[in-house]
């Protein structure tokens, strides 16, 4: 699986450099959605994910299965479990120091798709509100 993932990553990078593959979003697009607080409008898919996309139509059947296994593993380990840990850490700090104020900063990837840090906190009963860029806290 590691060799497969490395080969697919190299193929994608070669396609990017050759101009035969383009990323369907720009960094500016992500910043705009983040600042507007509407990351829910970005569907959690490979286009906006931090997980490499190994699944494509050119794969053979056994390669597609390997790609799907890797995709599932990455999503679970690199995104869902990470957000769960971070959300629990925020919750623990808030509960341990109820009279303190906190400022938590996370990268935009922690707020896209399902099972975000915000989802974790809301499941724990916290109310989370977006503060637009430029608005005083």
Features:
137 residues; mainly alpha; 51% helix; metalloprotease; wnt signaling pathway; metalloendopeptidase activity; metal ion binding
How would you characterize this protein structure?
The protein is built from 4 helices and no strands. The termini are far apart. It is extended and about 55 Å long. The chain has one domain. Mean pLDDT is 78; it is low at 42-51. By secondary structure, the protein is mainly α. InterPro entries: TIKI1/2-like (IPR040230), TraB/PrgY/GumN_fam (IPR002816). It is an enzyme of class 3 (hydrolase).
- How would you sum up the major sheet? none
**Unreliable stretches:** 42-51
Strand content: under 5%
What is the number of helices?
A: 4
* Mean model confidence by pLDDT: 78
Based on CA atoms alone, the radius of gyration comes out at: 18 Å
Overall tally of structural domains: 1
| Structural class by sheet pairing and helices | mainly alpha
> Which outline best applies?
extended
Query: What is the helix/strand order?
Result: HHHH
Helix percentage range? 40-55%
Instruction: Give me the count of strands.
Output: 0
Distance between the termini: 46 Å
Secondary-structure topology with pairs:
Layout: H1 2-18, H2 27-36, H3 61-96, H4 117-123
Helix pairs in contact: 3-4
């Amino acid at each position: 699986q590691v060799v497969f993932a490395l080969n697919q990553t190299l193929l994608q990078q070669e396609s990017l450099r050759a101009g035969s593959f383009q990323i369907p979003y720009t960094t500016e697009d992500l910043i705009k959605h983040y600042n507007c607080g509407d990351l829910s409008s970005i569907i959690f898919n490979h286009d906006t994910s931090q997980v490499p996309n190994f699944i494509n139509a050119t794969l053979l059947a056994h390669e597609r299965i390997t790609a799907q296994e890797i995709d599932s593993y990455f999503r679970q380990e690199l995104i869902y479990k990470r957000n769960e840990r971070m959300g629990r850490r925020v919750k623990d700090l808030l509960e341990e120091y109820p009279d303190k104020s906190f400022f938590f900063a996370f990268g935009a990837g922690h707020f896209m798709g399902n099972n975000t840090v915000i989802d974790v906190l809301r499941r724990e009963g916290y109310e989370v509100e977006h503060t637009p860029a430029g608005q005083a806290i």
